[in-house]
Amino acid sequence: MSATSPSSVPVVTVAPPSLLSRTIKGLKTFARKSPLSFFWGVIALIIVLVALFAPFIAPKDPLAANFRLMGKPPNELAWFGTDQIGRDTLSRVIHGSQTSLLVAFMAVLLGTTLGCLWGLASGYFGGRFDIFSQRIIEFLQSFPDLILAMAIAMALGAGTGTVIVAIAITRIPFGGRVIRSVVLSLKEMAYVEAARSLGASNKRLMFRHILPQCIAPYLILATTHLGVAIIIEAALGFLGVGIPPPTPTWGNMLSDSLNAGLVPPWWLVLFPGAAITLTVLAFNLLGDGIRDMLDPRLRGAVGAR
């Protein structure tokens, strides 16, 4: 009886699961453990799709005035009614979602990313740099978000880029403080000390060993701050220091409703206000679900809420 040589034994290789299969599995787990957040995540996805395909979904030109239909309530020709110069409210709400979400996404991405990098450097280096950084963050947080954003927007002038920068600056302190607290605990971990003892540079320690562990809190911050950014953008537009007309935004539409008379027509207030409320609620509840899924301390309590 001859022994089987090692070279004749077949080697079975198991392919790792694809990104698509892992994504589907993660979505199923999320839907099972947090069905309410998953539902509002679907609503948020629908709102994002409406914003992306606004030019194809909107029934009319949002800037086209029809003087025969000025100030008309909802009817078969205009499902959401028209404003004081005959522009279709439904089309303006749909196109307003594109502008409002673009500003919110860009502002949160910029502000949270800068805050994350700031918190990473502050927590890692510590010392005088950390003390000086925290004083700046405390100074920024001493102002209400809307007041600070309004002051920056008024100083820089009207425009989409100005509004994005103004809102982004209000998001920096939150990202900086949260990520700093995470880095303070991570830099004392054994694997970081081992990498440091092997001669790893500060840059490698920060971006290779510590920063990847900050992805979960970064995603939580970004998701939960989207709703706040949408409210700030709408408030700036309502106060007249946001994106200038005739670009349709939800805040501009609410501001324009005040020009329709002493008592604004209900449809000019209801539909933009409902769009803001639904979007903020969807992203806030989605952020709560993501926080519960990614935070190990809350993972066991997700399904019990």
Structural description of this entry:
- It is a single chain.
- The chain starts with 18 loop residues before the first helix and ends in an 11-residue tail after the last helix.
- The longest helix has about 35 residues, at about 90-125.
- Helices cover about 70% and strands about 0% of the residues.
- It has a single domain (about 50-55, about 95-300), classed as MetI-like (MetI-like fold).
- It has about 300 residues and is mostly helical.
- It is built from twelve helices and no strands.
Give a brief outline of the structure.
This protein is mainly α and 305 residues long. The protein has one domain: Orthogonal Bundle (MetI-like fold), CATH 1.10.3720.
Features:
305 residues, mainly alpha, MetI-like fold, 68% helix, globular
> What string, H for helix and E for strand, traces the elements in order?
HHHHHHHHHHHH
Give the count of helical stretches: 12
**Basic shape:** globular
Oligomer: single chain
CA distance, first residue to last residue: 65 Å
Q: How large is the share of residues in beta strands? A: under 5%
CATH superfamily: MetI-like
Low-pLDDT residue spans? 298-305
Domains, number: 1
Structural class: mainly alpha
- The CATH class: Mainly Alpha
CATH fold name: MetI-like fold
